[in-house]
Design brief:
single chain; alpha+beta; Alpha-Beta Plaits; 2 domains; 4-stranded antiparallel sheet; 30% strand
């Protein structure tokens, strides 16, 4: 467990710092205005050759970085599940031009896709586990989908275009592709 120090900075916000295993020092200054500064630094006893780096992030950028860094633990936890033969767990980020944007999630089984599940919809800082068919999806949402790799790919095509395309493995011998 990493030991995080918290220091209030009067009139500024809060500084959180920790020391990495290799002796590096990392800090995040969360300003009262909503933006954050990601910093690396060294103590004065580290010598004058030590470098200091500071990166200013607005609120959305800070949330994105936090999700990316926090997402690694989720990914590590799910990686054991993904090693099960035939199971794929993937994330679909909803864009404005996607077919599913603004629509109810609906039942994938009703579209002909059986054996695939929307495990959760992540919106902002919250997750909506096992969403109902009437859950409305908006741009910026992330759908967590589980099923066989082929069916996940089909679901993503449907979410993006509104169309279902048969994979080569699904076509009947002698039938034209897409039949």
């Amino acid at each position: 467990m990493v030991d995080v120090r918290r220091v209030k900075l009067p009139g500024v916000g809060v500084l959180h710092t920790f020391v990495t295993d290799d002796g590096g020092k990392v800090g995040v200054i969360t300003h009262r205005s909503g933006h954050s500064d990601l910093i690396t630094f060294s103590d004065s006893d580290d010598g004058h050759d030590a470098a200091k780096v500071s990166l200013r992030l607005d609120e959305d950028e800070a949330h994105t970085l936090a999700e990316l860094l926090g997402g690694t633990r989720i990914t590590e936890s799910l990686s054991a599940l993904e090693q099960l033969p035939g199971l794929s767990i993937d994330w679909f980020s909803v864009d404005y031009e996607d077919h599913i944007a603004g629509q109810q999630l609906g039942s994938l089984a009703a579209t002909g896709l059986i054996g695939i599940t929307v495990v959760a919809v992540v919106r902002g800082d919250s997750a909506n586990p096992a969403p109902a068919d009437d859950f409305r999806v908006f741009p910026g949402d992330t759908l967590v989908v589980a099923g066989s790799p082929e069916k996940v790919a089909k679901a993503f095509t449907f979410y993006r275009t509104g169309e279902l395309h048969r994979a080569a493995a699904d076509s009947v011998a002698g039938s034209p592709p897409g039949a």
